[in-house]
Amino acid sequence: MTYCLITETTSLPLNLRFILIESGKFKGLQDLLGMAFFALFTLMRMLPIPLLVHHLYHTDLNPHYNTVETFVAVTGTIPILLNLFWYKGIFGAFWAHVVGGKESGNTWEDFGEEKKEA
Question: What is the pLDDT of residue 115?
Answer without folding.
Answer: 47
